[in-house]
Write a structure and sequence with these properties.
Radius of gyration: 20 Å
Shape: globular
Helix content: 55-70%
Strand content: under 5%
Largest sheet: none
Structural class: mainly alpha
Order of helices and strands: HHHHHHHHHH
Number of helices: 10
Length: 270
């Protein structure tokens, strides 16, 4: 009899934390708050919004960490696609029934074909990443450690370091970013070292980055009193590919990966 595979409770916990961060981000961004000046409430909401893309990055890192040593499952891919269509269509119908949005032919078509219409960017991007997994894994299997590390550094330099410093995103796309995160997670899984297997240092690094992001958010808020253009940079480091957020995503992932938790009997559905 085949032994049942145990679930990784610590990374399931990270999934839950990531979902909470994403919900808080959506609450702030889509909550239609209007502020004419900097207030404590506004600053708090700006800080809460920073976690949205952190949650996204963590989700992709978890996928890369597990899938780099697995095979793409067609049934799982179909299940993911059907779930996206189901929730997209259901939400659209509910919203039209309660007159929250008007019913249109284009609207129902977009909800049914949510993936190809990019109705929900994460869903579309994740499906594309999942389809690419066999090819990404094949490339990773052909690398030695030095080549894999060099590729990760090159991708991070092009799509994170330079854009963060220059505010220019080149030809950035979420697909490219998800692939970058996948390669990083794959490296962490294949080549464990003193940085990826320790928890205390990564807790410190995570704390330092969180403090930095909070301070810059407060600082840019206060700076708007002198220079109104500063408002465009209030949540600058909360962008999905910003260097501070990338470092925080990796260190937080490593923190949860190295937690010593008992196996949970409750399956995470997220």
């Amino acid at each position: 009899m085949e032994k049942k595979k145990e679930r990784n409770s610590n990374l399931e916990l990270l999934r839950i934390v990531s979902m909470i961060l994403i919900i808080m981000h959506h609450y702030v961004v889509h909550g239609q708050f209007e502020w004419e000046m900097t207030t404590v409430n506004k600053i708090m909401l700006d800080i809460l919004s920073l976690g949205g893309k952190l949650g996204v990055n963590c989700f992709v890192l978890i996928t890369g960490y597990f899938m780099v040593q697995s095979k793409m499952n067609i049934k799982k891919l179909i299940k993911i696609m059907l779930e996206i269509v189901f929730y997209s269509t259901s939400i659209y119908i509910i919203f039209t029934c309660f007159n929250i949005i008007p019913f249109t032919f284009r609207g129902i078509i977009n909800s049914i074909f949510a993936i190809t219409q990019n109705a929900y960017w994460f869903g579309t991007t994740y499906v594309i990443l999942y389809v690419l997994i066999p090819f990404i894994n094949q490339s990773i299997s052909s690398f030695n450690e030095k080549q894999h590390r060099y590729l990760c550094f090159t991708l991070v330099a092009i799509f994170s370091i330079i854009p963060t410093i220059t505010t220019r995103n080149f030809e950035f796309s979420h697909v490219i970013w998800f692939v970058t995160l996948y390669y990083i997670a794959g490296y962490i899984r294949k080549y464990p070292n003193k940085y990826t297997e320790t928890m205390v240092k990564n807790v410190k690094y995570s704390g330092m980055i969180i403090l930095f992001m909070i301070i810059t958010t407060i600082g840019f808020n206060l700076l708007t009193a002198v220079n109104p253009d500063a408002k465009y940079y209030i949540t600058y480091f909360g962008i999905v590919n910003s260097l501070p957020l990338l470092i925080l995503s990796i260190t937080l992932f490593i923190v949860f990966k190295n937690m010593k938790l008992k196996q949970s009997k409750v399956k995470c559905l997220i």
